[in-house]
């Protein structure tokens, strides 16, 4: 039975689209998918024909539901699941939910992450530990749990992580964030080496300056530091973009679409920049 929805099907059919994938459909998990880049990735993968597990923190349930609804109204299928990526048991439960929805796991996008804008001399230990927990431990938990499931299935899969332009070129006032994204890049390479024998590719994507809430925060903090008006700090950084515009989540989602597809079967261990030409690697 076709369980996709165009917005005109019966409530029972729409509910089916929210909960389970048609037989043979590929299944992708996207963490941090309630808004921003994660939402854009989830919507793109659904458009590519995958059943998407839209995952985010319990406090973002409204955003999870909204993303799922938008996917279904566009003709896709999706399941909403809450997760805390800093807790490995929570990530294991997320993977189990994906398998329950689709029978298997084909793609895991470890997108969840946070940014903190602060001078290193003013950083406190609690904030530093929090960004480590989310941006490094969260990706480690996601990679490991996804790989365990893919190894058990015996037919490989795609694991994709969220790095950043700062994995190649750190920014001032983003010291801790930069360190975590360098770590994601290194973890991605090591995981690619270890899991290649299982047919699992492991890659990461590195957004540059994206028009999301995270960059709004960066702009606000930099403007306050430098005595600027809101928007001026962002404009200064954006001036280095060779393609002449700040990116949008759809730009990043296109790269993830490629990394999740069979077109990237011979690509592994890479961190692919999506920055409009700020940094050449």
Automatic annotation (TrEMBL):
In the UniProt record, the signal sequence range is none
- What InterPro entries is this protein classified in? NAD(P)-bd_dom_sf, Sc_DH/Rdtase_CS, SDR_fam
What keywords appear on the UniProt entry?
A: Oxidoreductase
Question: What Enzyme Commission number(s) appear in the record?
Answer: 1.1.1.-, 1.1.1.304, 1.1.1.76
Query: If you read the UniProt record, what top EC class would you report for this enzyme, in one word?
Result: oxidoreductase
Q: Which GO terms describe its molecular function?
A: (S,S)-butanediol dehydrogenase activity; diacetyl reductase ((S)-acetoin forming) (NAD+) activity
Region Disordered, residue ranges: 1-22
Keyword 4Fe-4S listed: no
Composition bias of kind Polar residues appears in 1-13
Similarity comment text for this entry: Belongs to the short-chain dehydrogenases/reductases (SDR) family.
Question: What is the name of this protein?
Answer: Meso-butanediol dehydrogenase/(S,S)-butanediol dehydrogenase/diacetyl reductase
